[in-house]
């Protein structure tokens, strides 16, 4: 993965050092935490899907929560060593995990499904009418003077 130099952000965002720090911290955290792998897909203009590879985990082992604007997906399994099994190669990880995704304002989780070792979480950004752009015709009067 390429390293991104974020120092120009610190120079150009006056009073927004917090934003640049969050981006920098997210980039560092992404390098450390790579399990389980996931994709983020744009399905339509305001619809998204997170697909996460959770091989070996059943529905009962995976918990999906939304706390404020953070989507938290965690998986845990009983880690009892099985002495009867002898692996020549063990490439399928069975460790517990927790992934956090920062959701934008007005992003809602629609559904979640676990099929063939892939967890699909569908999201939609719902913009309220008050925040949608409006076209104002020239010569129109928006407010009545009383």
From TrEMBL:
InterPro entries attached to this UniProt entry: A-crystallin/Hsp20_dom (IPR002068), ACD_IbpA/B (IPR037913), HSP20-like_chaperone (IPR008978)
Q: Which gene encodes it?
A: ibpA
Lineage, opening ranks: Bacteria, Pseudomonadati, Pseudomonadota, Gammaproteobacteria, Alteromonadales
Give the UniProt family note.
Belongs to the small heat shock protein (HSP20) family.
Q: What's the protein called, per UniProt?
A: Small heat shock protein
Residues forming the SHSP domain are 29-141
State the source organism's domain of life: Bacteria
Q: What are the entry keywords?
A: Stress response
Q: Which organism is it from?
A: Glaciecola nitratireducens (strain JCM 12485 / KCTC 12276 / FR1064)
| A Pfam family of this chain | HSP20
Matching entries from PANTHER family are given as:
PTHR47062, SMALL HEAT SHOCK PROTEIN IBPA
């Amino acid at each position: 993965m390429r390293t991104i130099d974020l120092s120009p952000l610190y120079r150009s965002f006056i009073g927004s050092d917090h934003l640049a720090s969050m981006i920098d911290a997210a980039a560092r955290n992404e390098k450390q935490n790579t399990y389980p792998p996931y994709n983020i897909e744009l399905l339509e203009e305001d619809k998204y899907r997170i697909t996460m590879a959770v091989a070996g985990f059943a529905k009962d082992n995976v918990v999906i929560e939304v706390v404020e604007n953070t989507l938290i997906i965690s998986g845990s399994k009983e880690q009892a060593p099985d002495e009867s099994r002898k692996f020549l190669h063990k490439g399928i990880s069975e460790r517990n995990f927790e992934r956090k995704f920062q959701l934008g304002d007005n992003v809602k989780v629609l559904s979640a499904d676990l099929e063939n070792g892939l967890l699909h979480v569908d999201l939609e950004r719902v913009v309220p009418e008050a925040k949608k752009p409006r076209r104002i015709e020239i010569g129109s009067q928006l407010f009545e003077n009383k």
